[in-house]
Amino acid sequence: MTVTKLGFIGGGNMATSIIGGLVGDSSYEIYVSDPDQSKLAQLEAKFGARPCDSNIALIKRVDVVVLAVKPQVMQQIVEPLKDGYHLTRPLIISIVAGTRTEQILTWLNAPDAACVRVMPNTPALVQCGASGLFATNATNVQQQLAESIMQAVGITVWLDNEELIDSVTAVSGSGPAYFFYLMESIYNSALKNGLDSSAARKLTLQTALGAAQLAISSDNDFATLRNQVTSPGGTTEAAINVLQKHEFAALVDRAVTQAAIRSKELAKG
Predict the structure, then answer these.
(1) Which of 33, 82, 221, 234 keeps 20 to 30 A from 113, CA to CA?
(2) How high is the pLDDT of residue 267?
(3) Helix or strand or coil: residue 137?
(4) How far apart are alpha carbons 42 and 48 in whole angstroms?
């Protein structure tokens, strides 16, 4: 069996979730570098990840490098890696928001570097993530490798062009907050309608989970699923009529579109 040496530059929440998702998969040998020594010690103790003294030491010994740092430090992290990168030329996977592939290749001084840019989301922390992937200069084998790594924390979708990362950001990257906001609103309304806090929370959470699971297990589109719950003249129709009267769908569209616009703005700096 081929063992892939997989290195993470940055040991934060998203890196930790991916490492955790890969635990037990003997086809990976995992390395991590991070300035926080206590974080490295925790990752080693919990997952067996091997700590590296520096980012340069890490990039020289691995087949795949996952960049998992904050966007504002990305350039100062990547530029010093160029000499080490050219020695081994590992596949680069970036899960850093707002950093274009072109910028990464420029900082590495490697326009032909194999790079996969990924937009994950926070449910990856519980292995229920959704990630959009875009590849540059990567072989089919490298793309399959990147996909398998990200599938350790959820589902993956390949994108035809990098601009669509902004759409993924608006839909699934920011999307959990939209659902949390809806759940928050339903919960607060449940309290106003007499339910206690415990019952309101349990019912709201299970209803959200159940609706998602029903949709996942069904071949029907969302409109059909909604109509199946909406009996003419019933309680659901009364609620849906209010949402439609206040142009709920148009409001959601404006919100998601604004998130995509902001993603483009942030990428431009």
Answers:
(1) 33
(2) 84
(3) coil
(4) 9
pLDDT number for residue 96: 95
Give domain 4-159's CATH superfamily: NAD(P)-binding Rossmann-like Domain (3.40.50.720)
The pLDDT of residue 1: 65
Q: Are strands 129-136 and 115-119 parallel, antiparallel or unpaired?
A: antiparallel
pTM of the model: 0.92
What spatial distance separates the first Cα and last Cα of the chain, rounded to whole Å?
Answer: 44
d(CA 162, CA 104): 13
In this structure, what are the phi and psi dihedrals at residue 113, rounded to the nearest 5 degrees? -65, 140
How do residues 66-108 score in pLDDT, each as one tens digit? 999 999 999 999 999 999 999 999 999 999 999 999 999 999 9
- Answer for the pair 13, 37: CB distance below 8 angstroms, yes or no: no
* 183-222 pLDDT, tens digit each: 999 999 999 999 999 999 999 999 999 999 999 999 999 9
**Cα–Cα distances in Å, from 152 out to 17, 23, 87, 138, 239?**
9, 9, 29, 20, 38
Q: Which of 195, 198, 170 is nearest to 266 (CA)?
A: 170
Fold observed for domain 175-268: ProC C-terminal domain-like fold (1.10.3730)
Beta strands in 50-183 (DSSP E): 50-51, 64-67, 91-94, 115-119, 129-136, 154-158
